[in-house]
Design goal:
Layout lengths: L1 H7 L13 H10 L4 H36 L16 H7 L2 H31 L9 H9 L6 H11 L6 H8 L14 H26 L3 H9 L4 H12 L1 H16 L3 H6 L11 H10 L4 H26 L6
Helix pairs in contact: 3-15, 4-15, 5-9, 5-12, 5-14, 6-9, 9-12, 12-15, 14-15
């Protein structure tokens, strides 16, 4: 590790200007801009940032370039890269009806899951904020956050029992009231809403934590001034809370839209894409194409198109929802 110390150590101080020849001083002033301490500080900063930069390169940047390389060759899971095919695989992915059908399924899942998650998490954060009179707020925050740290496999199997049409808890409760059982995960009309309920249960605690942090950062003076002006609680919520929570709302909405679009674990474990491909999301389609049918280049092309779509959707969200609020 000697070279690390030699790189980050503080260099020797520069001699006083009157002891350096004029020509040498002009030459040094042209290339030396920072003090020795500042140089060492920046080098230490790059050293500490190196693991994160390496992680981003290995997990995000390099796979994207490899994905582009994957789509340009006729890949086989057993033989590796074959002949160069150019954009032929991309054209096949664009014309694949099953791919666009799975993308439409993912879009429907987003419409079911994301608005519900945002609304419920915001309401839960408001109910557990410092201004709420609700008792045991700390305990409620912990209970809401527990699903976030629970294994998705365990979550899927818990909800499989709850949704079981024969002995599941939900249908048992419906039977007590004389209602017919609901085929939660076995009907094409109810499978996506059922998966959306599972998604909301998993993600609500994470979004609630972000909204709670935003609520705690809003000065109490704004609410006191609104109360003096005669504003009701719902008016203060609409005119103060929501505008000042805009950065958190934008961030959570982007995170949840991306998370819902690339949902894989819940439909894979709970329904395997059924019934009749009604819960076959686009990521599940890419997974099957790559590892069940061994068409790596076709799966790579589908993933590349999906990456571009997510990027466009994220930019549109930022453009439409971001706004600066000042009081």
């Amino acid at each position: 590790m000697r070279w690390v110390w030699e790189w980050v150590r503080v260099p020797a101080p520069t001699p006083p200007p009157d002891t350096i020849p004029r020509g040498l001083m002009q030459h040094r002033s042209a290339r030396v801009r920072l003090s020795p301490g500042r140089v060492a500080e920046e080098r230490f900063g790059w050293l500490f940032a190196a693991p994160a930069i390496l992680y981003v390169l290995l997990v995000f940047v390099i796979p994207v370039f490899f994905l582009v390389y994957l789509t340009l060759f006729n890949w086989s899971a057993f033989e590796g890269p074959g002949a160069f095919v150019g954009t032929r695989v991309l054209r096949q992915a664009v014309n694949d009806r099953v791919y666009w059908s799975s993308l439409l399924t993912s879009a429907k899942f987003v419409l079911f899951a994301v608005p519900t998650t945002l609304i419920l998490s915001l309401l839960a954060a408001t109910a557990c904020s410092r201004r709420s009179p609700l008792p045991l707020k700390g305990l409620l925050r912990v209970l809401y956050f527990l699903p976030v740290v629970t294994s998705l496999a365990a979550t899927a199997y818990i909800w499989l029992w709850l949704f079981n049409p024969a002995y599941g808890l939900f249908n048992t409760i419906l039977g007590k009231f004389g209602l017919a059982p609901v085929p939660w995960l076995t009907d094409v009309n109810t499978v996506l809403p059922s998966l959306a309920i599972m998604f909301v249960w998993v993600r609500l605690g994470f979004d609630m934590a972000i909204f709670t942090a935003g609520l705690e950062g809003i000065p109490e003076e704004f609410y006191e001034a609104a109360t003096i002006d005669g504003a009701k609680p719902w008016q203060a919520f609409l005119k103060i809370t929501l505008p000042l929570l805009n950065p958190q709302i934008v961030m959570v909405s982007i995170i949840e839209v991306i998370g819902a679009l690339k949902t894989f674990d819940l439909p894979y474990l709970a329904t395997h894409g059924g019934p009749l491909n009604a819960s076959r999301t686009v990521v599940l389609h890419i997974f099957d194409t790559a590892f069940r049918y061994n068409e790596l280049n076709k799966a790579g092309a589908a993933a590349l198109i999906f990456f571009v779509l997510i990027l466009v959707i994220t930019l549109v969200q930022l453009r439409l929802t971001s706004r600066k609020v000042e009081y």
